[in-house]
Amino acid sequence: MRTIKLKADRWGNSIGLLIPLNVAAIIGLQANTRVVAMYQANEIHVNPIPQYDRTTLLAEVTHSNLPQDDWGMLLADHPDEVEHEE
Question: What is the pTM of this model?
């Protein structure tokens, strides 16, 4: 872990930290990126919240990495047990 010195400035009713672009690039932080901040006593740790794209995630699903859990019967397999609204 590396240490950098930043200056905290007032932004309206908040305090903001300007993070140098080279540091932001290293940790994958871009403008408007959502982050999670963890704080305790006199420390704060800020990490970008990973952004997932459903199409990209589904492309990584294969038969070998599907869960083997039994999720119960599929309604399509038992159409007589499906309640229909009238």
Answer: 0.51
Q: What CA–CA distance (Å, rounded) separates 39 from 19?
A: 18
What's the rounded Cα separation, in Å, for the pair 44 and 37? 7
Per-residue CA distances from 26 to 2, 20, 37, 65 (Å): 11, 10, 17, 30
Q: How many other CB atoms are there within 10 angstroms of residue 29's CB atom?
A: 15
Using one digit for the tens of pLDDT, what is the confidence trace for 15-44? Answer: 998 999 998 898 888 888 888 999 999 998
SS3 47: strand
Band of pLDDT at residue 79, cut at 50, 70 and 90: low
Please name the helix (run of DSSP H) or strand (run of DSSP E) that holds residue 27, with its range, or none: helix 21-27
Alpha-carbon distance of 53 to 56, in angstroms, equals 5
